[in-house]
Backbone:
């Protein structure tokens, strides 16, 4: 059984660089019990006949990329223009298949997110067709956030116009770094100069929130390059920015290239932490609002609604090969294999790959995730989420006292994450979730 002390932060040194010796990643839903394959169809059907109440989002996955960027763990299929129409037709048939369900129609959808892969690889007409179809079939809230995620390569004026005219109101563009050498070595295809020019094109439309993803800790991205990346972001008319600390996933091209000696190593954790600290201070000095540990808004147009809702356990209607969703406490994922994804749809079936049973403790896990997302360890909210929340918040107190003493959370009643707490947010989240399971085991409560 877990001892809380395992998640105590080191009281020696600087909390930003030295609190823990490793970062623990977060795998949502990994511990949930799967519904047996033979019951999945009927159980999915039952879910589509149930009302959906409360905050909800829609996620559409576009699992294609022009190339496999070295650092990335999201790559699935190689892109080729001829795939656009076939995939769009399939997505639209999936949207139509369940549009009449009670789960689809019973409540407004607050945010729609096209993620990938690379949604902006789709042709202009196809992007517009999908957005229009969603708006015609599903009950989008009047202020629904509609985000198109993508990269600059393949994304041109015609596609920008098509997305805006169809109703997209937010773009999230992965840049990672503006430095040419770093970009080239990581498999990014356009120059930093072209990236800057692209942002001018996009922001000058003044019709949608524009967000830029930067990564920190990439090989070749030294301190000077990082400073220039931050200065470039500050010089653009962006609505928001994400700062993501690089995780080197085993088996990615980056992991293999570093092991072979073909690529410089990524920054170690203390250096990543220092880079994060510099980014955090720079954005604060610029007056940007911190909306989560990795996301800042520069304008009131940026709401970050999708990320905020999904991390607080909102229902997620999922579409597209490889997408994942959650409905009334049950999580599901869709077939990652394109061939069988198409075959199941042609047979009139939702292309399910996995469905989980309801986890009765999900409200506590969601309250913990929402607290970390909002950068406040608000125990009152966790206690409200479930009767087991009350005992848990007493159980976890010594851990929070340690984090407070070290400087990961503030000593006021709100227990806000400090800059160091924000850098270590995924470790804090996993610690709190693991401690909850350990609390249940201690009380001999079955999960
Ligand atoms: C799902 S990816 C899609 C991005 C888009 N296709 C592109 O090429 O920029 C979304 C974001 O995740 C971040 N990301 C990808 N791999 C990562 C890694 N290994 N560690 C940290 N962040 C990563 C990048 O900042 C990226 O922009
Ligand atoms: S960063 Fe984007 S384009 Fe590159 S492999 Fe990952 S998802 Fe694909």
Residues:
């Amino acid at each position: 059984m877990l001892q809380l002390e395992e998640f105590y932060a080191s009281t020696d040194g600087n909390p930003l660089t030295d609190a823990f010796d490793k970062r623990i990643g977060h795998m949502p839903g990994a511990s949930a019990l799967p519904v047996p394959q033979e019951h999945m169809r009927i159980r999915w059907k039952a879910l589509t006949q149930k009302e959906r109440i409360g905050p909800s989002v829609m996620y559409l996955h576009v699992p294609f990329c022009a190339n496999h960027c070295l650092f990335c763990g999201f790559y699935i299929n190689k892109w080729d223009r001829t795939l656009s129409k076939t995939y769009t037709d399939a997505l639209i048939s999936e949207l139509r298949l369940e549009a009449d369900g009670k789960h689809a129609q019973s409540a407004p959808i607050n945010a729609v997110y096209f993620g990938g892969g690379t949604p902006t690889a789709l042709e202009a007409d196809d992007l517009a067709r999908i957005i229009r179809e969603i708006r015609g079939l599903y009950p989008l809230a009047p202020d629904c956030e509609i985000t198109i995620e993508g990269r600059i390569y393949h994304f041109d004026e015609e596609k920008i116009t098509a997305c805006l005219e169809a109703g997209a109101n937010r773009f999230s563009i992965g840049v990672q770094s503006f430095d040419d050498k770093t970009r080239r070595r990581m498999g990014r295809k356009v120059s930093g100069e072209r990236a800057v020019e692209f942002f001018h094109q996009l922001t000058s439309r003044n019709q949608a929130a524009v967000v830029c993803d930067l990564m920190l800790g990439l090989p070749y991205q030294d301190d000077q390059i990082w400073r220039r990346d931050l200065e470039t972001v500050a010089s653009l008319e962006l609505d928001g920015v994400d700062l993501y600390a690089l995780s080197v996933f085993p088996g990615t091209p980056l992991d293999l290239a570093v092991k072979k000696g073909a690529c410089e190593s990524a920054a170690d954790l203390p250096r990543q932490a220092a880079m994060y600290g510099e980014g955090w201070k720079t954005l604060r000095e610029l007056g940007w609002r911190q909306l989560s540990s990795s996301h800042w808004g520069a304008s009131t147009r940026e709401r970050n609604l999708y990320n905020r809702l999904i991390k607080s356990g909102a229902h997620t209607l999922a579409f597209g090969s490889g997408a994942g969703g959650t409905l009334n406490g049950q999580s599901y994922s869709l077939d990652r294999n394109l061939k069988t994804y198409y075959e199941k749809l042609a047979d009139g079936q939702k292309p399910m790959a996995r469905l989980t049973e309801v986890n009765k403790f999900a409200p506590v896990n969601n309250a913990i995730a929402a607290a970390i997302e909002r950068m406040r360890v608000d125990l009152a909210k966790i206690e409200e989420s479930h009767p087991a929340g009350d005992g848990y918040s007493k159980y976890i107190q010594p851990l929070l006292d340690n984090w407070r003493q070290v400087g990961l959370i503030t000593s006021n009643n709100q227990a806000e994450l400090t800059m160091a707490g924000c850098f270590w947010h995924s470790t804090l989240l996993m610690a709190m979730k693991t401690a909850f399971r350990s609390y249940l085991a201690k009380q001999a409560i079955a999960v």
